[in-house]
Amino acid sequence: MADKPTSGDSRSVELQVVVCELADEHYGLDIARVFEIIRHQSITPVPRAPVFVKGVINLRGRIIPVVDLRCRFAMPETEPTKETRIVVAESGSTRVGLIVDSVSEVLMLQLAAVEPTPEVAAGADSEYLRGIAKLGDRLVLLLELDGLFDVEEQNILAGAA
User: Fold this and answer.
1) Where do the domains of the chain lie?
2) What is the DSSP pairing of strand 62-68 with strand 138-143?
3) Which residues pair with 44 in a beta bridge?
4) In the prediction, which pLDDT does 142 show?
5) What does the buried/exposed string (b/e) look like for 12-38 if buried means 16 or more CB atoms within 10 Å of the residue's CB?
6) For residue 121, what pLDDT band results from cuts at 50, 70 and 90?
7) What is the pLDDT of residues 71-103, one digit of tens each?
8) Of 14, 38, 44, 136, which has the fewest beta carbons less than 10 angstroms from its beta carbon?
9) What angle do CA 125, 56, 31 make, to 5 degrees?
10) Which of these, 36, 49, 31, 51, lies nearest to 160 by C-alpha position?
11) Handedness of CA 74, 16, 43, 40 (dihedral sign)
12) Cα separation of 1 and 73, whole Å?
């Protein structure tokens, strides 16, 4: 997962992530793939969309499909709170809004603190796991946005935009 560091290139040994929370777990998104973080807002449903696609929003004239990550990860759904956020990020070639319980911080991680995804979690649905960062006594699951949706789902999201 980690590139070999080159002399004088600190970017190859660090990763900056936006830390989001879902059901009391921490997830990290590569900040280079995050465009913005907005408050939860009214979402227009899209007929016949997959269950995890809650609909679309109009963000300054651009239509953005919105995905509920709790639903995507088969977690119990909850009602939005004042802490709920939509993280607008790039998955594949599509800009998508990801509903999360909250966004807590931006971290600079040393790649040495990132472990590969354990075998027990490396099943068919783990393409979206990039690794696990150990930060003291807490763990941050690093999401690989390009693996979050399969090709058919990417096409659906692109069609909703």
Assistant:
1) 10-160
2) unpaired
3) 56
4) 93
5) eeebebbbbebeeebbbbbeebbeebe
6) low
7) 998 899 999 999 999 999 998 888 999 999 999
8) 136
9) 60
10) 49
11) positive
12) 23
pTM: 0.85
Q: Which of 68-77, 84-93, 102-111, 127-136 has the lowest mean pLDDT?
A: 127-136
Q: Write the burial class of residue 135 (CB in 10 Å: 0-12 exposed, 13-18 middle, 19+ buried).
A: middle
Instruction: Evaluate whether 66 touches 56 at the Cβ level (below 8 Å).
Output: yes
Q: What size, in residues, is the chain?
A: 161
3-state SS record for the chain: CCCCCCCCCHHHCEEEEEEEEECCEEEEEEHHHEEEEEECCCCECCCCCCCCEEEEEEECCEEEEEEEHHHHCCCCCCCCCCCCEEEEEEECCEEEEEEECEEEEEEEEEHHHEECCCHHHCCCCCCCEEEEEEECCEEEEEECHHHCCCHHHHHHHHHHC
- SS3 letters for 30-42? EHHHEEEEEECCC
Amino acid at position 43, single letter: I
Structure tokens at 46: 């899209």
Looking up tokens 């879902």 gives 22
Contact status, residue 80 vs residue 66, Cβ threshold 8 Å: no
Fold of the domain spanning 10-160? OB fold (Dihydrolipoamide Acetyltransferase, E2P) (2.40.50)
